[in-house]
Amino acid sequence: QVQVVESGGGMVQAGGSLKLSCVASPDTLCLSAMGWYRQTPGREGDNKELVALINSAGATHYEDFVKDRSTIYRGNHKNAMSIEMNSLKPEDTAAYYCYAIGCPGTPNYWGQGTQVTVSA
């Protein structure tokens, strides 16, 4: 059974930092990339917005709103990755979801989400 488990959410004051981590299992899962999406209150439908991605080669992509204040990196464990976000703002308050992107021809998987709340 595939599991995608996030950790590290919580409450932080504006200007603070948080590290979110994600592990996808089992180890036999073939992933081409992993990423973070977020969903803010009031966002229409179930639309989640991309935060950052890292692929199996280590190439990264950041959306403009986190660029220069976040770092996404792979963990030591296979199919693990983390993101460190700095200079957090109240508008970063959201549920953050890990997205495990399967190799071609295989499924993608979402985690359950972890809440990040940034107070002014």
Oligomer state of the chains in this structure: single chain
Average of the residue pLDDT scores:
94
- Tell me the radius of gyration: 14 Å
What structural category do the secondary elements indicate? mainly beta
How large is the share of residues in beta strands?
Answer: over 45%
Unreliably modeled segments:
none
What coarse outline follows from CA principal-axis ratios?
A: globular
Helical percent range? under 10%
The ordered H/E elements are EEEEEEEEEEE
- What is the distance, rounded to the nearest whole angstrom, between the alpha carbons of the first and last residues? 40 Å
Biggest sheet statistics: 7 strands, mixed
Strands, helices and their partners?
Blueprint: E1 3-7, E2 10-13, E3 18-25, E4 31-39, E5 49-55, E6 60-62, E7 70-74, E8 80-85, E9 94-102, E10 109-110, E11 114-119
Parallel strand pairs: 2-11
Antiparallel strand pairs: 1-3, 3-8, 4-5, 4-9, 5-6, 7-8, 9-10, 9-11
Give an account of the 3D structure.
It is a single chain. It contains no helices and 11 strands. It has strands spanning 3-7, 10-13, 18-25, 31-39, 49-55, 60-62, 70-74, 80-85, 94-102, 109-110, 114-119. The strands form 2 sheets. Strands 2, 4, 5, 6, 9, 10 and 11 form a 7-stranded mixed β-sheet that branches. A 4-stranded antiparallel β-sheet has the order 1-3-8-7, with no helix packed on it. β9 and β10 (109-110) form a beta hairpin.
Features of this protein?
11 strands; 7-stranded mixed beta sheet; 120 residues; single chain
Summarize the structure.
The protein has about 120 residues and is mainly beta. About 0% of the residues lie in helices and about 55% in strands. It is globular.
